[in-house]
Design brief:
heterodimer; A: 400 residues; six-stranded mixed β-sheet; four-stranded antiparallel β-sheet; 14 strands; B: 261 residues; alpha/beta; 9 strands; 14% strand
Chain lengths: 400, 261
């Protein structure tokens, strides 16, 4: 795709995106868009952002050659983009840094966020602690139960974690509650959305902050291999880490982009969250996008072993890229993700987040079609410390 | 001029503010819903707003969310809501308005939805997650003479209110406070100042105030700044707390009385 330049001025990626929110929020969305458009050309803002990325977040993150994983499969060379080495353990801080600086310029006294796996909640709470701003994080009751270490970290960082008991008690419902809070407190509150979802300008804003992953990857692979990769693979829930690494490569047509969704117990069950594989266009949480919904347009309850992928929608830019066939989207079951996580840990000494394990697991599906002179980059979006209890509960002897 | 606009105007000329009552369709149960809705109309509601239940109602607080969840557990579909609307339109001359979120309407097929709603006798439609920015996308097909009622809120600037007034038909739904639907104990001075400002900007349409209204006193206080009021959560809460029709009818009687001047 040459000269890719979306969203358009109405916040749309083709038909997807937009601003499907109550009227109360519209002025705040315009204010956010205008402020961001001004700041992205403001040298002071850019310097502060770059300094925080470098000296606080630890960027650039390495591009690690996965030597033993490559030997194990005996096909294309495998590289891992190490977002797990970002401060707080995932790519989420890339966006939280950018948005906290915008919130500061907007003069907002209070930050709210939603979180699934807790990584975005921790990233937001971290930036709020650093800047001394009040932080409230909405989190589904089920996710609170399965992500206890991150809940404790958020509290330690001074954030108030509000359990959400409605619906499926996961990320979807936490997002609803965060939006309701924002509708109520919009005058003094900035909502730091954690993925490339929601009303315009959020999908654009979050993508831009996350695209640092792809920019670095491009420089690093050109430096190491003197050429672009053949494949880039990333997991997709809302899709922020995926769009972050894909975006700078969209115009490079020879680079195949692969997004991996969570198939949960399998696509033939109703326990999955493979939105792009099995969903249909719908209007949800401020955007027109692919959505898992029933025959009456009610949003489906979804499942993934990974709290960060457990979401019935997806970023609208992914919906557009799917329809254009620029990105291919596939899915991986809970079981396949677990196996990939154990394999990566054993061979590379890296315990991936359950989300990232879905991307790694996709190697099994396609690496045999590759050749030894090809290059695969997998975005390792986060580390697996937060998922230790899930890994312990699900460990089987034959994984050894 | 729209039916709803003329209807409210007639009421206003009789020194009365219009009373619109919101009910979630299919709540508290499907079989007795029509009986409940007819009682609400008979008790003094001038307009009936039927909510299409949705799994993720962003503009609603816990009370209406709960009623939506119960209606969905009762398997209330968009088709059921249209059937209710038809029965109620046959029962009463009073306008029936549908309130629904964008996705169930979009999923039904917008064009078919507007056609079926109009055939059922529905007079107007409110879609709270379709603001001015998405109006042209969402209402891009034949809307079969339905009035599209848009919302203004305390964050809407005067310029936006003018645009919304221009695009709305029937009336403009003025949200009293920033926030979701619910019951408010009291309203501050800033609310009244804002309502006064909004009412002075709206020229083309009638203006009804909603969100938070739970007492006759609220209606009396808002009366100088509107042509009518909308009450939802208080009625739903009354049904949730004590599912007796008598209580609901009594409260609507009181609210209806408060609308007379």
């Amino acid at each position: 795709m040459k000269n890719y330049n979306l969203p358009d001025t109405t916040g749309k990626f083709g038909i997807y995106g937009g601003r499907f929110v109550p009227e109360t929020l519209i002025p705040a969305l315009y204010e956010l868009e205008t402020t961001y458009n001004d700041l992205k050309n403001d040298p002071d803002f850019i310097n502060e952002y770059n300094q925080l990325q470098r000296e606080y977040n630890g960027r650039p993150t390495p591009l690690t050659y996965a030597d033993r994983l490559t030997k194990y499969y005996g096909k294309a060379k495998i590289y891992l983009k190490r977002e797990d080495l970002c401060h707080t353990g995932a790519h989420k801080l890339n966006n939280a840094i950018g948005q906290i600086l915008i919130a500061k310029r907007l003069g907002k006294q209070r930050i709210i966020a939603e979180t699934g796996a807790g990584q975005h909640g921790v990233a937001t709470a971290t930036m709020c602690a650093k800047f001394g701003i009040k932080c409230v994080v909405y989190m589904g009751e089920l996710d609170i139960e399965r992500q206890k270490p991150n809940v404790f970290r958020m509290k330690l960082l001074g954030a108030e974690v509000i359990p959400v008991t409605s619906g499926s008690k996961t990320l979807k419902d936490a997002t609803n509650e965060a939006i309701r809070d924002w509708v109520t407190n919009v005058r003094d509150t900035h909502y730091i959305i954690g993925s490339v979802v929601g009303p315009h300008p959020y999908p654009m804003l979050v993508r831009d902050f996350q695209s640092i992953i792809g920019k670095e990857t491009k420089e690093q692979i050109l430096s190491i291999e003197k050429r672009l990769p053949d494949y880039i693979v990333a997991c997709v829930g809302g899709g922020s880490n995926a769009i972050g690494i894909f975006y700078p490569f969209i115009n490079d047509e020879n680079v195949k982009l692969i997004g991996v969704e969570a198939a949960g117990y399998g696509l033939n069950t109703n326990k999955h969250c493979a939105t792009l594989s099995l969903g249909s266009p719908g209007i949800f949480q401020g955007m027109l996008t692919y959505l898992l919904q029933d025959e009456n347009g009610q949003v489906s309850e979804v499942h993934s072993i990974s709290a960060g992928l457990d979401y019935p929608g997806v970023g609208p830019e992914h919906s557009f890229l799917k329809d254009q066939s620029r990105v291919q989207y596939f899915s991986i079951t809970d079981e396949e993700a677990l196996k990939a996580a154990y394999l990566t840990t054993k061979l590379e000494g890296i315990l991936p987040a359950l989300e990232s394990a879905h991307a790694i697991a996709y190697l099994e599906k396609f690496i045999q079609q590759t050749s030894k002179d090809e290059i695969i980059v997998i975005n390792l979006s986060g580390r697996g410390d937060k998922d230790l209890s899930t890994y312990m509960e699900n460990f089987k002897e034959d994984y050894k | 001029m729209s039916f709803i606009h003329n209807y409210i105007d007639t009421i206003n000329k009789k020194n009365r503010k219009a009373l619109s009552i919101f009910l979630t369709a299919g709540f508290p149960d499907k079989n007795n819903f029509i009986e409940l809705a007819k009682s609400v109309l008979d008790a003094g509601a001038d307009i009936l707003e039927l909510g299409i239940p949705f799994s993720d109602p962003l503009a609603d607080g816990p009370i209406i969310q709960t009623s939506s969840t119960i209606a969905l557990k009762n398997n209330t579909t968009t088709k059921d809501v249209l059937k209710y609307a038809e029965q109620l339109a046959n029962y009463s001359e009073k306008p029936i308005i549908l309130m629904g979120y964008a996705n169930p309407i979009n999923h039904y097929n917008k064009n078919n939805f507007f056609k079926d709603a109009s055939s059922a006798g529905v007079k107007g439609i409110i879609v709270p997650d379709v603001p001015l920015e998405e109006y042209d996308y969402f209402f891009d097909c034949d809307i079969y003479n339905l009035d599209v009622i848009l919302l203004v809120t305390p964050t809407s600037t005067n310029d936006r209110i003018k645009l919304i007034d221009h695009k709305s038909k029937g009336f403009v739904y003025c949200v009293s406070v920033t926030g979701t639907t619910g019951i408010k104990d009291s309203f501050g001075e800033d609310t009244y100042n804002n309502l006064k400002r909004t009412y002075s900007v709206i020229e083309k349409n009638k203006m009804l105030i909603g969100f938070g209204i739970s007492k006759s006193e609220d209606i009396k206080n808002f009366a100088p700044y509107c042509d009518g009021v909308i009450v939802g959560s208080k009625i739903i809460k009354t049904i949730l707390d004590n599912n007796k029709l008598d209580n609901t009818v009594r409260i609507i009687n009181e609210f209806s009385e408060a609308c007379n001047f």
